[in-house]
Amino acid sequence: MKNFIRIITFLFVAIGLPPLHAAELPNVVIVFIDDMGYGDIGPFGSTIPTPNLDRMASEGRRFTNFIVSSPVCSASRAALMTGSYHRRVGISGALGPTAPTGLHPNEETIAEIFKKKGYATACYGKWHLGRHPEFLPPNQGFDEYFGLPYSNDMWPLHPDYAHLPPDAEKRKRGFPDLHLIEGTTVQPEIVTGEIQKTLTTQYTQRAVQFIEKNAEKPFFLYLPHSMVHVPLFVSEKFDGKSGLGKFGDVVMEIDWSVGQILDTIRKLNLDKKTLVIFTSDNGPWLSYGNHAGTAGKLREGKGTGFEGGVREPTIAWFPGKIPAGTQCDQLASTIDLLPTSAALIDAPLPEQKIDGKDIRPLLFGEPNAVSPHKAFPIYYGRKLLAVRDTRWKLVLPHQYRSIDGQEPGKNGTPGKYMQKQTPLALYDLQNDVGETTDVQAEHPDIVKRLQTEAENIIEELGDGNQNGPGVRPAGVHKN
Fold first, then answer.
1. Which residue in the list 86, 104, 123, 128 is annotated as catalytic?
2. Does a structural domain hold residue 291?
3. Helix 73-82 crosses helix 337-344 at what angle (to 10 degrees)?
4. What range defines the domain where residue 284 resides?
5. Are residues 342 and 391 in the same domain?
6. Do 33 and 58 lie in a common domain?
7. Model-level pTM?
8. How far is residue 252's CA from residue 249's CA, in Å, rounded to a whole number?
9. Tens of pLDDT along 371-408?
10. pLDDT value at position 172?
11. Least enclosed by CB within 10 Å: which of 119, 142, 358, 368?
């Protein structure tokens, strides 16, 4: 790898394009929200006050067709970190507190891409890619880490156990006490509800301090908030402020956090050299009712392959580079952030195959720019649910969960999903973003093309419990 970097450097000099110096390298910030729905912020139609995100959108670019690899926590994060479909790197679902697995240390993360160019790197928030030291951020390219190792509901007060007495045997078989981690060191204090109220503030303060500390050198900041995942917690300064319930209060605090980041960047005159991306890991957890967000006009939510599960409210901000107040309707994804970042800083891509594409033409609003994705697979768990491009989506026959027709949850207690079955269906997302009308009979050529793409994907990555040759193993902790 080191020899390869030397060769690339030599080639830049040889053709008269010297590598970027540190002063020219752009900073990159990724704000990654947990379980935020497509319709949960002002720029995407919410009535919840989000003035900072509104301004970010007015000064930047909304991506209306931005999706994740999978509609669930760990899988989605693995894809973001590696620039690969989560299926390729062996991470599916949401890793539990006792899981021995994690993101394999041999996978080259987006943070390690930045380290090649001498960047300072930090992660503050929810990791959820393995709790053992070898899987934690400091061993995956990050100089600093502070946060929760997995989702904030994976604790003894999980709804499945909260009503039980403290010594209940079922609780003992449930979730262990939750602890924050600093670096790779588990902190001794048990996380309580009072501590959870401070997490958004703590992550934000650390992020601001990191930016201030590294104002004179290039930095990469990854801020994966624990909110708006249930259980919802909000600080006193935002409790009751939205007038729209606890969920609204939590979103307002997230908006405040974004404002703190952007204000710090502006104050330090770094706005003309800093790219900020705001997005989410999957759609809303609809069974939680008034403690969940909304997918807006999209169908279903978290845990499904419909658009409400995988299409995320996304804003890109880079004053002077990204055209202000604009919108991109082309298909793009979190897996594109790694190769796009590598291109921005002239860093080589990972040696192992990745699936993301350089989306700078979409990011910077180049005329007639189109999505580089001809076909994008949507897996949930190990099952291939759909294949789509910018306009068309072929949904494969499968069973899915739905709260439609069920009593939703309330105040932190979830409702019960019902299981539904979908047949093969083709949706024209350009004219039917809610996936209401199957148009396969009118477009057999599109069905045939996407079926062929699905077959090719399955041949490489597998389906169900059958892995394809393109799947790499997850890391496994050895005692």
1. 128
2. yes
3. 20
4. 22-363
5. no
6. yes
7. 0.95
8. 5
9. 999 999 999 989 999 999 999 999 999 999 999 999 99
10. 62
11. 368
